[in-house]
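Side project, low priority. Logging it here so it doesn't get lost.
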Amino acid sequence: MRIGNIITALFCVFIGAMFLLLSKDFPKTISNAPGPGFYPSIISWLLILLGLILLIQSLVSSKKQEIEMALMSPPAKFVYKICGISVICSVLFKFIGFAVIAFLFILVTSYMMGLRKYTLLLIIPLAVTIGFIVIFVNVFHVPLPTQEIF
């Protein structure tokens, strides 16, 4: 697994450096408040730092770790399904809107994770979606995408 850790570490450093370069022209502060470049630069530096830590640990460690990964095991298939649903939702997000996609995503993933009580399957996605809308629209003043098809 050592080579996998080295590749992952280098990939993290590369992605962090790319995002740092892409966000370098964003203002870091606006009127003594964090600007649009503040968050991406913090995340980029953290990604670079964590990648370097993983790289150093992988190079210094003399232990040989053997991890057996079954790519078609039930947990791996579950992750593939969640990733597929996430991709589908991100594609449909612009067309259907935030409220419907968030509700359906939480509903489907809750069902996949074993929630079988129909009242909870409706109440939890509805409450979380309404909570997100209230927080982002009313507190943070972030406009959420609405539907374009209908």
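Brief comment: Residues 38-60 form the longest helix (23 residues).
Revisit when time allows.
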